[in-house]
Design a protein that fits this description.
The structure is a single chain. With about 140 residues, the chain is an all-alpha fold. It has 9 helices and no strands. It has 2 domains: about 50 residues, Arc Repressor Mutant, subunit A (Orthogonal Bundle), CATH 1.10.10; about 70 residues, Homeodomain-like (Arc Repressor Mutant, subunit A, Orthogonal Bundle). It is about 65% helix and about 0% strand. Helix 1 packs across helix 2 and helix 2 packs across helix 3. The N and C termini lie far apart (about 80 Å).
Amino acid sequence: MAFVPTARHLLRAKDLADARYAEPLCVDDLARAAGLSRAHFSRAFRAAFGESPHAYLLTRRLERAAALLLTTDRSVADVCFSVGLRSVGSFTTSFTRTYGRSPTAYRAAFPPASELAMVPGCVVRAYARPQRRTFREDSAATPA
């Protein structure tokens, strides 16, 4: 069996965290994906990526939560649970520590683009309406 560098195993665990952040993953799951013991995996991950596996997973979850807060109207609790976190209080604390404001304040600071649009609603409605067009109706010959 050929030797595979530890970094290759660590990338497998990092990819798992990126792809399945919303699932109830823990450091043991990531270590298992890397094929390393929990302690060795944690030390190697921190040495390779500069942060602990738990911090990396939390960062991925908070990034996704921030995107959901800006692009959806889902409640903060729903966003919290949909990114794989289990406690709204811990989510709010972690989010505030990372982004400098609570999830609700973060959402309020970045209103949807529709609120900033300079086009009057009547113009939007006029251009959004379907055009009255016929397709091959005028050119079809009527049978005699």
